[in-house]
Amino acid sequence: MQTNLQSAGGNDQLIKKKLSYTFNQLGMVIILVLLSVGMAIFAPHFLEMSNMLNIFKQVSITAILAAGMTLVILTGGIDLSVGSTVALSGVISVLITNAGVNPIIAMLVGAAIGLAAGAINGYLTAVPKLPSFIVTLGSMTYLRGLALVISGGYPLVLTNETFKFIGAGKILGIPTPIYITTLVYIIMFFVLKYTMFGRHVYAVGGNEEAARLTGIKVERTLIKVYSISGLLAGIAGVVLAGRLFSGQPTAGIMAELDAIAAVILGGTSFVGGFGRIQGTIIGVLIIAVLNNGLTLLNVDSYWQKVIMGGVIVAAVLLDRIRNRRRR
Amino acid sequence: METVLARKRAAEPHAELQPVMKMASVNKSFSGVQVLHNVNIELYKGEVHALMGENGAGKSTLMKIMAGVYRPDSGSILYKDSAVNWPSPMAARDEGISVIHQEISLSPNLSIGENILMGTIFPRNKMGFIKWQLIYEKAEAILRSIGSSLDPRAKVSTLSIAQQQMVEIARALSFNSEILIMDEPTASLTDKEIEKLFVIIDDLKRKGVAIVYISHRMDEIFRISNRFTVLRDGKWITSGPISDTNPDHLVKLMVGREIKDLFQRTYADTAVTTKREPVLELKDISDKKTVKGISLRLYPGEIVGLAGLVGAGRTELIRAIFGISALSGGQIIIEGKPVNIQSPSDAIGYGIAHVPESRKEQGLFPNLSVQENILMAQMHSYRNSGILQYDRMSQDAERFIMDLGVKAASKDQNVMGLSGGNQQKVVIAKWLSIGPKVLLLDEPTRGVDIGAKTEIHKIISNLAEQGLAVLVVSSELPEILGISDRILVMHEGKIRAELSRQEATQEKIMYYATGEIK
Ligand SMILES: Nc1ncnc2c1ncn2[C@@H]1O[C@H](COP(=O)(O)OP(=O)(O)OP(=O)(O)O)[C@@H](O)[C@H]1O
Ligand SMILES: [Mg+2]
């Protein structure tokens, strides 16, 4: 009897130990499940297949941005420029498509513009060591400005069918953006876990000084991180233009904030070095379910914002409290 | 002077009837691993209580419980005759328990003065504004009382580790505490600063403060403590007056078995080494601040000790070689070829490894596992067409954990869950993993216990026999004397003397280190 009790206790401790590693994500998974159940009960159409696909399609832009944002936040930085990059990439790729450039090439140009914008952010953050907040606040503004200048402030209508396919098409009944998002996350998971670059991202985020003294090329790592974030924003811009049938200079306004919220909800810490891409998926889904559910429930769109903000703060707070209690 | 102090100490009555602090049957687990099992400790007014044990024995954990940083799972804490359950470290401090933590925990961007008085209520004027002048005056008074000439207005980020340690000490003294916990306060100090610290400790004892003193340096323990407690593997082994024991006996209690004397290197075949080409040669190198025109040659297979006081430029010299700080003049030559080292990664490319003086700031990745901390400098060799081979990484990590005797629950454990000494071993393992030609060591055994220290010395010595060249900085003279083939003594950025292992003695080194030259 006595030994039985003891071994039960030991088991319990083992489980606790395992849980402590996944706690952050687990807490958020619970919140996601509760939210979904709540929506399923109160919003009758929530669980329908078409609505589910809709959720994923709508959230794909935020999701793609959040994948890059996870990298940036893991290094202890922030990228405020991704929303503006979405606009610039969309505007330019549509503009040149309409001017007769091959749509595939135009889309690649859109992505490349994001890559270039990100590389500039990365260079300024890594080499003259400007704070990423300031650097990307600046680029957020000038990229948006460029998008407005180039488009003259009006949406550019997209007529090319190939281009539209990337945002609005379907393969086997499933919207193209969902494939793209899934691919981005699989690659990102792999990069973070199985490449030297991925581990260097964690090292630089955990202790930049130690990383430098360990021979890690910190500058190069940071430039790559911001470039990837920019590249993904460029891709998101192309996808969004395809979905909206236009390149809009006002696209992606505040999109960076949704991405940041998703990353933080996913358990990645602003301190740098702590977090996982799997967590970001959960964060993205929480935002998606909330957005979609509130719309289905006919909540006024202004009130939706109030609720969204409140839920984000509450979720992070809850998680923090639960973590603190474990000590 | 030493004997006078010692006699005085013996004459002092150190034990009153009632202990001021009594912890009994304390248990503590971290995520399922029990690290303290029914531990007891009693502190009396005016005593220095040596808390002894190997790395990972549970010393810091016990002290953190005493000071309210952690909560015990069970057990009692009786402070001044009443049971306490600290809600926070601040509560314990307000009741008179202050700590000098093993890991320096200053705010680098604040001034020395603010750091020292942090946690006290800052003096304010009627408008509610802080009276900075008063803060700096107060901080200055405390600094001067411990014989430090630091400027309280300077930022902490500009200080060396030893200087930061002095600020930590000053901070702990800024509270009028009844219990002062010192967790390896001397780990990066040299004899001169340590002497000052001991004078302060004597003074505090006379005022009736109970002091817990944790150190892996045996000579200190026997100089200043009155009583001792030994922990082994988280269990209380024994307590008693220090006069009832001796160093060998104490080590035996800590380790649970006999341990032979401190490591003595025997190799040192200078005749052979001088015939070879130096692997590292410095010609008249200077950095922008401290290092002034240093030349030296380091041959394969030899261990060269760098001695000197805090501020003599030993760390700065090593940092200049490793490409952390820029040279303002001179030439570095590796295996006969002049090289231009601009960054640590350049230095590593030339086969140079560097164990830095501060493991927390410069060595460890607090977010990563033991395994990744060990292999981070060597990641590139585990790639197979770009993909990291985790099974090979695991094998190597496990081998280093074994070789260096790192006490960890598993290789996947977060490195911050290790005890201080074991963290140090992880940093050393990281640099051994790159298979260097030149190994620069800055306080390599800081906070490492006697047994492990001997192991590390053996490993370094064996590597030297296979051709590794080692340049080692240590503020512990016995360590320098024990492992070096040659000793260079630095003073104010210059090399003042070169002593062979035969002629070197503590006295001679101190003589040159203090710059007392005709
Ligand atoms: N926060 C923590 N999480 C998990 N394990 C911990 C934590 N702190 C300490 N431990 C474990 O508790 C044990 C005791 O650690 P502690 O730091 O008290 O040792 P120590 O006696 O101070 O050693 P050292 O001489 O190396 O400083 C070690 O095995 C360590 O791995
Ligand atoms: Mg300790």
UniProtKB/TrEMBL annotation, chain A:
In Swiss-Prot or TrEMBL terms, this protein is called Ribose transport system permease protein
In terms of superkingdom, the source organism counts as Bacteria
Q: Which GO terms describe its cellular component?
A: plasma membrane
Principal subcellular localization:
membrane
Task: List the InterPro entries.
Answer: ABC_transp_permease (IPR001851)
- Note the topology in the membrane: Multi-pass membrane protein
Keywords assigned? Cell membrane, Membrane, Transmembrane, Transmembrane helix
Q: Where in the cell is it found?
A: Cell membrane
Q: Give the Gene Ontology MF terms in alphabetical order.
A: transmembrane transporter activity
Q: What is the lineage of its organism?
A: Bacteria, Bacillati, Bacillota, Bacilli, Bacillales
Originating species? Paenibacillus prosopidis
- Transmembrane spans: 23-43, 55-74, 80-97, 104-124, 130-150, 171-192, 225-245, 257-290, 302-321
TrEMBL record, chain B:
Q: Does the keyword Membrane apply?
A: yes
GO CC terms in record: plasma membrane
Provide the GO MF annotations for this entry: ATP binding; ATP hydrolysis activity
Compartments reported by the entry: Cell inner membrane; Cell membrane
An annotated GO BP: monosaccharide transmembrane transport
Q: What superkingdom does the record give?
A: Bacteria
- For the keyword Nucleotide-binding, the answer is yes
Q: What is its main location?
A: membrane
* Domain named ABC transporter: residues: 21-258, 274-517
Alphabetized, the UniProt keywords read: ATP-binding, Cell membrane, Membrane, Nucleotide-binding, Repeat, Sugar transport, Translocase, Transport
Q: How does it sit in the membrane?
A: Peripheral membrane protein
Q: Which Pfam families does the UniProt entry name for this protein?
A: ABC_tran
What's the protein called, per UniProt? Monosaccharide ABC transporter ATP-binding protein (CUT2 family)
Q: Name the lineage.
A: Bacteria, Bacillati, Bacillota, Bacilli, Bacillales
